[in-house]
From TrEMBL:
<keyword id="KW-0472">Membrane</keyword>
<feature type="transmembrane region" description="Helical">
    <location>
        <begin position="125"/>
        <end position="144"/>
    </location>
</feature>
<dbReference type="InterPro" id="IPR021529">
    <property type="entry name" value="DUF2798"/>
</dbReference>
<feature type="transmembrane region" description="Helical">
    <location>
        <begin position="9"/>
        <end position="30"/>
    </location>
</feature>
<feature type="transmembrane region" description="Helical">
    <location>
        <begin position="42"/>
        <end position="63"/>
    </location>
</feature>
<feature type="transmembrane region" description="Helical">
    <location>
        <begin position="84"/>
        <end position="105"/>
    </location>
</feature>
<keyword id="KW-1133">Transmembrane helix</keyword>
<keyword id="KW-0812">Transmembrane</keyword>
<dbReference type="Pfam" id="PF11391">
    <property type="entry name" value="DUF2798"/>
</dbReference>
<protein>
    <submittedName>
        <fullName>DUF2798 domain-containing protein</fullName>
    </submittedName>
</protein>
Length: 159
């Protein structure tokens, strides 16, 4: 886990990239009904805007309240694994909430059927929570932490 603001920023850049790209692939796959090169291309082309949105939401809206909440509910005796899992869940839930809205707005910007916003947003939340939490806890989290600490050993990114 990051130990200072600079490490946290670099870690956030890496984690957002992995999560946004995977969740984009997942959502486009659900819409298309099959995984094709077109699904991969669509996810890649849409990545910059979705990534920027997620990065800004994570850094300026979600991160501080999520971590504050996580540390409120964690006992002082909580071990590092429990801390990581709790913080991850507290981060993923609001990110799914906001990014599902982003996805609904993106879809509706093409169809102009804005009266469907809350229905699409709600169904997006349900579909995305099912994928985002397990992916974050079992794949993205461990992978990004490993890559982050391999590239940046403790103490190499100074506060």
């Amino acid at each position: 886990m990051p130990r200072n603001k600079r490490e946290s920023f670099v870690y956030t850049i890496m984690m957002c990239f992995v999560m946004v790209f995977w969740m984009s692939l997942y959502n486009i796959y659900l819409h298309a009904g099959t995984f094709t090169l077109e699904v991969l291309e669509t996810a890649w082309v849409g990545l910059p805007l979705g990534y920027l949105c997620a990065l800004l939401l994570d850094w300026f809206v979600v991160s501080t309240p999520a971590k504050n909440f996580a540390f409120k509910i964690l006992p002082d005796s909580a071990g590092p694994v429990r801390k990581v899992l709790t913080i991850s869940c507290c981060m993923v839930l609001p990110m799914v909430f906001f990014m599902s809205l982003y996805g609904a707005v993106e879809v509706l910007s093409h169809t102009q059927n804005w009266d469907q916003l809350f229905i699409i947003w709600g169904t997006n939340i349900l579909k995305n929570i099912v994928m985002a939490i397990p992916f974050q806890l079992f794949i993205a989290g461990p992978l990004v932490r490993k890559v982050f600490r391999t590239i940046f050993p403790v103490g190499t990114i100074l506060a």
